[in-house]
From TrEMBL:
Protein name: Enoyl-CoA hydratase domain-containing protein 3, mitochondrial
Family listed: Belongs to the enoyl-CoA hydratase/isomerase family.
rRNA-binding among keywords: no
UniProt keyword terms in alphabetical order: Fatty acid metabolism, Lipid metabolism, Transit peptide
Molecular-function annotations in GO: hydro-lyase activity
UniProt function note: May play a role in fatty acid biosynthesis and insulin sensitivity.
Gene Ontology biological process: fatty acid metabolic process
NCBIfam families: PRK08139.1
InterPro entries: ClpP/crotonase-like_dom_sf (IPR029045), Enoyl-CoA_hydra/iso (IPR001753), Enoyl-CoA_hydra_C (IPR014748), Mitochondrial_ECH-domain (IPR052377)
């Protein structure tokens, strides 16, 4: 079976981390599979939303500690391997951000360390009510510095620092309070909830959503004045699309839009 499974339906690509015996750890092989699949999605005009989930009893338990310990056996104590590992993981996280399609994390079981980073990196997240989240590397003497980047951009500063320094888990309800996830549902409703959210996005004009996703992340790093100037230009770009013209006309004429997609 594939390490990363893909299923396509209704403009939604559902990607499943498929290493349940290793709690879907971000092994070297899993990172390679994610990198390859994300690269293929970048120019996939048939896919308008992506759902990322995990097989088995967990979403993702972070990096593969056995591989990390094996890498430590090199003459340099693992320095080159560790640097390469975190570079490759960073590229996967940046690829998710760069995709034109919104990516929804469908989370259950646990999402720890780089697995929690993966949730924080996705544009949206839906979690089962019994999910636990943590950046708990500090408990084994490894501060979760790279997961901190995504986490601290999702969760208020003091709460993120508490999670990082104590290594304690938070539950799904707390994760929603802090802004790490959008929705919390019963475990048996999780698939439907994630697919429903994805379908509500896939139903929209893909070009507009793509423009909006890119602009959302660009403007959030700007000053208020610069953000308004930038997004004004983005609105002009969006308004000049033929399909946006058709969408506005259809709204005024009270009919469904005839989008080319």
């Amino acid at each position: 079976m594939a390490l990363l499974e893909r299923e396509d339906a209704g403009g939604i690509a559902t990607l499943t981390l498929n290493a349940p015996e290793r709690l879907n750890a971000l092994s070297d092989e899993m990172l390679a599979a994610l990198s390859e699949t994300l690269a293929g999605l970048e120019d996939d005009r048939d896919t308008r939303a992506v759902v990322l989930k995990g097989a088995g009893k967990a979403f993702c338990a972070g990096h593969d500690l056995r591989q990390m310990q094996a890498g430590r056996q090199a003459e340099d104590g693992g320095a080159a391997y560790f640097k390469d590992l975190f570079d490759r993981c960073t590229q996967v996280m940046l690829a998710i951000r760069a995709l034109p399609q919104p990516v929804i994390a469908q989370v259950h079981g646990i999402a720890t360390a780089a697995g929690c980073q993966l949730v924080a990196t996705c544009d949206l997240a839906v979690a089962a009510s019994d999910t636990r989240f943590g950046v708990n590397g500090v408990k084994i003497g490894l501060f979760c510095s790279t997961p901190m980047v995504a986490l601290s951009r999702n969760v208020p500063r003091k709460q993120a620092f508490e999670m990082l320094t104590t290594g304690e888990f938070i539950d799904a309800a707390r994760a929603q309070e802090l802004g790490l996830v959008n929705r919390v549902v019963a475990r048996d409703e999780l698939d439907d909830a994630a697919q429903h959210l994805a379908a509500s996005i896939a139903d929209k004009l893909a070009a507009a959503v793509s423009i909006g996703k890119r602009a959302f992340y660009d403007q959030i790093e700007m000053s208020l004045a610069d953000a308004y100037a930038f997004t004004g230009d983005v609105m002009v770009e969006n308004l000049r699309l033929r399909d946006t013209e058709e969408g506005m006309a259809a709204f005024l004429e009270k009919r469904p839009p005839d989008w080319s997609r």
